[in-house]
Amino acid sequence: MQALNISYKRHRFPPQIIAQVVWLYARFNLSLREVEDLMLERGVDVSFETFRRWTFKFGPLIAHVLRRRQPRPDDVWHLDEVVVKIASQSYWLWRSVDQHGVVLEEVLQPRRDKRAAKQLLIKLMKRWSSLPKRIITDKLRSYGAAKREVAPGLDHWSHKGLNNRAEHSHLPFRKRERVMQGFQSPGSLQRFVSIQSATRNFFSVPAHRRSALTNRYHRLEAFEAWKSAANVA
Fold first, then answer.
1. Are residues 56 and 80 in the same domain?
2. 165 vs 73, 179, 230, CA distance in Å?
3. What does the pLDDT read at residue 166?
4. Are residues 57 and 85 in the same domain?
5. What is the pTM of this model?
6. Residue 126 has pLDDT above 60, yes or no
7. Which candidate, 83, 97, 129, 188, has a CA 20 to 30 Å from the CA of 178?
8. How far apart (Å, rounded) are the C-alpha atoms in residues 63 and 74?
9. CA-CA distance, 162 to 121, in Å (whole number)?
10. In whole angstroms, what is the distance from residue 128 CA to residue 37 CA?
11. pLDDT above 70 (res 232)
12. Which residues make beta-bridge pairs with 91?
């Protein structure tokens, strides 16, 4: 069910064009100036600054609807963290994915400690209203300390070699980070990764879907989900 009534009132351009701009920016490793070129080739003459405002306003709303429609994850969750520089200051982006690479939650924290790991676990439990069969992490001790306080009975495997799934989930973010040449603030980073991950969760083809026809149907379903979430269906 759509939780938000996304309205495009008082905007000069049709909702379909606004949603297309947000989708291009969220789905691909494009700068706003590159999106401007693509839209200009299609006859839409709008500055990249306007595209920035559209993404800032509508991207989080669409991502919120997509997250609400996301199916329940499988029962093995991988947790990992990656360092990010913002204005020469180090932050840690904590991320959890299931065994298929679907992003379950992302939290930006200034520390890499038990408190940050605990907040990630709590947000996961609140969002999905349940615990998985198992969590898999690297050997960072903060995970074990946080798990003992939040969910002492949860099965926890701590081994760097088992956590490739979570580490691979950072790659799309790293590619986009280079294109954007960093982020201006913690808020802008948290907002963008939520839009990017919610979009990728729908458009990335699961590993078990192999045939070209099946992959095509999956993408068509993802397009319909995006249009419905953006209220342009």
1. no
2. 14, 23, 30
3. 79
4. no
5. 0.88
6. yes
7. 97
8. 21
9. 19
10. 40
11. yes
12. 84
